[in-house]
Amino acid sequence: MSHRSKVSRPRFVLNAGDMFYWGGIEAHCGLSTLKVTDPKEQFTKVFEQVYTGEGLAGVPWLGTLGNHDFGERSYTNGWDQIIAYTWGPGGRWVTPALYWRQRIHHADFVADFFFVDTNFNDVNKLCSSARLQTNGQNLHAHSYKADNIQDANCGVAGPTSLSECVSWFHDLWSAQLAWLEDELYASTAKANWQVVVTHYPPEQGWQLATWRRLSAMYGIDLFVTGHRHQQEVHPAGTGPLGDTAHVVSGGGGGITSEKVPSVSGHDDQYGFMDISLSRQQLKIKAISHGGVIRSVTMVKPRKATHGPNGITSTRTPRSTTKTNGITSTRTPTPTTKTSSTTSVTRTSTSTTSFTSTSTSTTSVTSTRTSTTSATFTSTSTSTSTTSFTSTRTSTTSATFTSTSTSTSTTSFTSTTTSTTSATFTSTSTSTSTTSFTSTTKTSSTTTSITTTSITTTTTSISDAFARRGAASALVMLCLLRPWLFS
């Protein structure tokens, strides 16, 4: 990835789960506030120090959870801390909830990315009374210990007991399925592209019929999945979803690939997908661990058969909410025992200095819906050149208390040259310390995790399979025109 990113200059990375292999964050779910910094060392070794390199600096890392992030044969590992790290130092980690949507605005098109939790597929393992124990470095020589029964309470973040585990995952799937259908319905009128990012491939498990129905009705263009430790590309018309293409990019890490990789890299075991997106097409390049381009696949946008813009439809969204002038479909039904309390006092002024060869807007609007149990108390004063309005909630049991003062001045100088759909040249300079779009920041906080940036951030990511425990499903997105998050 580090070599490829120097050429393709991706705008963000999609991660389809199993971020921390073998058994997720080595902490118990539902940590108290005093222990919220425990997973920091694991994030540093597995993520912050691994994914660095030219071309990926400042690229957001957007993800969803896999079965190993929960614990593989338990649900009590620190999966809620994976979500909480969205508000941690650095700011490039973006996994704000178990399920959520990210909208990307371009000069001439809009793309919606839906992050969905499909771990209900493995509920029998996750809710098992025998928890997998590893034996040193040989992670395939393991024993079982019946300790998932004891202290199996994730508090407000998740199941409070082993007996509640199966129903919790069932309710989670039911709630997000209702949310997803409403979001897809609305997306057909607002976005040119609909992409679903989830851990399990659509044909693996019992959800295939649901995915086929949603793909046909709402014109889902692409599924990005992981789970299997290999690289697969299924063009439209060849896979289980009919006219919807899907990829399996599970070769980003873990311990072993499905088959033995070759030294030269002429195989489909370890690797990643390099995706270019324009209004007319989506181009998928499958890159092996040896830097070999294994295949190039073109995807054309699908047409929905259901939706609000004069498309045949027998349903309407369940409800509509309006936040900061932006109308969106219903907020997902909260899962078991969730609560959210937010107290924010903020004073800000903003100006904009922007020079560019292409027309762009510096106002970013974001609406994210999800389940949450996080509590934040924050007081900040800032001066910023960027306007960012965001509504985001997440599933986490962490509590943060932060006091920060920041001052920023942002100046962008951008030159964009596009000759083909695969060429993007951009030069930009920015300095910022605001808590929502930042490249540098100054903050003081009463805990070791600060409540800073949420979306467009500026640290770095690289080699997809450089170390053991690296994320196992990576996709680089190379966007061919000026873009904005919302």
* Main β-sheet, spatial strand arrangement: 3-2-1-26-12-13-14
How many structural domains? Answer: 2
Radius of gyration over C-alpha positions, nearest whole angstrom: 21 Å
What is the 3D shape?
Answer: globular
Report the major sheet.
Answer: 7 strands, mixed
The H-level CATH homologous superfamily of the largest domain, spelled out, is: Metallo-dependent phosphatases
CATH architecture of the largest domain: 4-Layer Sandwich
Task: Indicate the CATH class of the largest domain.
Answer: Alpha Beta
Q: Structural class of the helix and strand makeup?
A: alpha/beta
Mean pLDDT: 65
Low-confidence stretches: 131-147, 312-473, 478-483
**Distinct helical segment count:** 7
CA-to-CA gap between the ends? 26 Å
Give an account of the 3D structure.
- The chain folds into two domains: 2-315 and 458-485, Purple Acid Phosphatase, chain A, domain 2, CATH 3.60.21; 323-445, no CATH class.
- 52% of the residues are buried.
- 14% of the residues lie in helices and 30% in strands.
- The strands form seven sheets. A seven-stranded mixed β-sheet has the order 3-2-1-26-12-13-14, with helices on one face.
- It has helices at 2-8, 40-48, 67-70, 79-84, 123-126, 162-190, 208-218; strands at residues 12-15, 61-63, 93-94, 100-106, 110-116, 131-135, 138-145, 193-198, 222-225, 231-234, 245-249, 271-277, 282-288, 293-299, 320-323, 326-329, 341-350, 353-356, 363-367, 375-384, 387-391, 399-407, 411-417, 425-427, 444-445, 474-479, 483-485.
- The two termini are 26 Å apart.
- A hairpin with a 4-residue loop joins β13 and β14.
- The chain is globular.
- The protein has 486 residues and is an alpha/beta fold.
- Mean pLDDT is 65; it is low at 131-147, 312-473 and 478-483.
- The chain contains seven helices and 27 strands.
